[in-house]
Amino acid sequence: MGSTLILVLVVIAGFSFDFTNGFHDTANAMATSIATGALKPKVAVILSAVLNFAGAFISISVAATIAKGIVSPKVLVGGDGLELVLAALIGAMTWNLITWYFTIPSSSSHALIGGVIGATIVATASSDVNWHNLVQTVIVPAILSPFICAGVAALGTYMAYRLIRRLGQKEARTGYRYGQICSASLVSLAHGTNDAQKTMGVISLALIAHGDISAVNFSVPLWVKLGCALSIALGTASGGWRIINTMGNRITNVESPQGFAAESSSAAVILASSYYGYPLSTTQVVSGGVLGAGLGKKVDSVHWNVIGQMLSAWVLTMPGAGVLGGLAWAIADLFGAHANAGAIVICLLAAAGAFGLWTLAQRNKITPEDLDRTNVSVVEEAELAGVPPAVAAA
Amino acid sequence: MAILATAYINWSALWKIVLVSLIAGAGVVIVFGFLLLGVKIANNAKSGGREWAGYVLSGICGFFCLAVVAAGIYAILNKPVSKKPAPKKTAAALIAPSYKSTT
User: Fold this and answer.
1) Which of B:41-100 have CB within 8 Å of A?
2) Which candidate, A64, A61, A52, places its Cα nearest to that of A19?
3) Domain parsing of chain B, residue ranges
4) Mind listing the pLDDT tens digit for each residue in A347-386?
């Protein structure tokens, strides 16, 4: 049974990870709504925060934990289980902050899985990782899902623009702005459901390993549910403006029909996959949706250099978080029998790293005011997209 | 190559996901466009019949869109793992009964 101090650190790290998950992934749901001026940035993130909070309480089950069948269960509930979970959370959180600093959307869950795998390999052996399951349940979906969503979004966008010719620019774009709010809300709700519960599972596991709650007739304690829901909601409300900017403005110049197509396609792919038991990364799906929305209008409207950066981050997420998780474990392990000291040191190092990245990010800070497009009318949006003024006003 | 892929890809689930995504994703975008078209027809109508036709088109399309949203919420509430009977809870089983949709 691990020490109480390490358990407290795991809980704090779990809530902190949920916080980073919230601000890192707000972009998934709200970036296109902000980019098209459908919602003011602050209104968008508050709406997303409320839905993430609500989502955390829907369909509660221990199912939404981590790495099913990927890491041997005995590793996480063994004597060093608490330290290993702590190292994994620190690895994942640090990777989230690094990608946030570089303004690249990446999967928080892949980071968490990477952290667990990295810490497990360093702590025990690579034989404790089920590589086949890793490929089947994580890597293959990660490769396929953006393509599926991009295809669906491209088709939706193409058809939407054909309809706009009959509808008139002004009415269509106004209508699609309203539609975007609904589709983005659904993505936020799905995100809260999946991601907050994942951390609930991690913290509950730590509580079981510590002997605070029983593994028989198990239920997630209310304070854990509340803590995770609040953490992800607060993280979301704090607004990950840097990644919202990438998702909403840098992949392609999103217009309201494209935003609606991207969000609807993402919601459809995420929820269909969730229902049929096929795991996905919300970040990658939404990124695929935005890419598809760009392709559906005009192929050369997509900024391929940004796509290249995102692909690199996706490929590097699991290994990167794995290295950080493994490193965190290795540093903690240097203290040998003084496990408490090791745990405190890796937490302090992670906090210092987070502070350093935050300080660096202040140099080229992106504010909600920079992203606010609600003052851009639908007519101006159409004109900016190259539509002649007379047609845009029609 | 195909055999190798089959070992890793659940084709049965995949085609369902693609089909549902096409209907609910691209389908909603198209149907929502027709909803807007119906409103436009109704607003610009010079005769009562045309106005009604516009509203009927909008109503049908709006119903489809709402149905898709309802289906989405149903999917959130009824994840496959929630349907399974609860197994005997052991610490090992709690490690990760499922790796769900992620972010």
Assistant:
1) 68-69, 71-73, 75-82, 88-100
2) A52
3) 23-80
4) 999 999 999 998 998 888 888 888 887 777 767 766 666 6
